[in-house]
Design goal:
Elements (H helix, E strand, L loop, with lengths): L16 E6 L3 H11 L6 E8 L9 E5 L11 H5 L5 E6 L4 H9 L4 E4 L4 H12 L11 H6 L17 H11 L4 H8 L3 H15 L4 H10 L7 E4 L4
Parallel strand pairs: 1-2, 1-3, 3-4, 4-5
Antiparallel strand pairs: 2-6
Length: 232
């Protein structure tokens, strides 16, 4: 179903949908919160979590996959704990098998990072209304190469790294090999090598050990923070 059709799912009450945003990088969750800020009358961001479980009573948990587990490695129980909150995965990777695996692991919605902020809000509202929202399939490499519609934030953006290059550097900093990164991100090994090569050039490094040290020095270590009622 096209996201534009989901706009009919508006809340009957005046209360905004309460959401928590989850990712291991504080910069990522705060950037996504900033994207949603203009829609505060419809979406209330009540918790930001980096590397910590959600503790607030929320309607929807928005899980950004930057540097995170995806597909059938998604741990729904760990994310929502005993909460009735509905889970929305937010990712570049919309390969059908990956989406199906995420849904089978408990995701109620799966939204592509190629959508606009308004479509993101509409998708969250549709999931909250009981819909299972999934995107049109787009090849992961094609999605990564598409123009950003959201003014997102990620580690290394201010240093010239693209979103995909930054995610690869984050996983290198976490100790993953190229093949493990390819498996995690559902990219071809050749695409991973290309991102590594272009990222290294921008970082001014030549070896993996140098890349890890660079990542540690530039905010690519996963965070452990929780911000309750970040707009309050």
């Amino acid at each position: 179903m096209d996201l534009h059709l989901w706009r009919r799912f508006t809340l009957m009450s005046s209360r905004a949908i309460r959401i928590a945003i989850v990712n291991d990088y504080e910069l990522v969750v705060r950037g996504l919160a900033a994207v949603l800020a203009p829609y505060a009358d419809r979406i209330e961001v009540v918790e930001l979590d980096s590397g910590l479980p959600v503790v607030s009573d929320v309607d929807v948990l928005l899980y950004d996959t930057f540097g995170q587990a995806q597909g059938d490695t998604l741990d729904h129980e760990e994310l929502v704990r005993d909460s009735p909150a509905r889970l929305v995965v937010f990712s570049w990777n919309t390969e059908p098998d990956l989406v199906d695996k995420a849904v089978s692991r408990g995701a109620n919605g799966y939204l592509s990072k190629s959508i606009s902020a308004a479509e993101l809000v509409a998708g969250i509202e549709a999931v909250h209304a009981g819909e299972t929202v999934t995107p049109e399939p787009i090849d992961a490499d094609e999605a990564a190469a598409s123009d950003l519609q959201l003014n997102e934030a990620w580690p290394g953006r201010d240093l010239g790294l693209s979103a995909r290059e930054a995610e690869v550097v984050a996983l290198i900093t976490q100790g993953l090999s190229n093949q493990e990164i390819a498996d995690r991100c559902f990219l071809s090994i050749n695409s991973v090598k290309t991102y590594v090569r272009t990222a290294y050039r921008k970082m001014g490094v030549n070896r993996r050990s140098q890349a890890v040290l660079w990542g540690l020095a530039h905010g690519f270590t996963p965070d452990h923070t929780r911000d309750l009622h970040p707009d309050g």
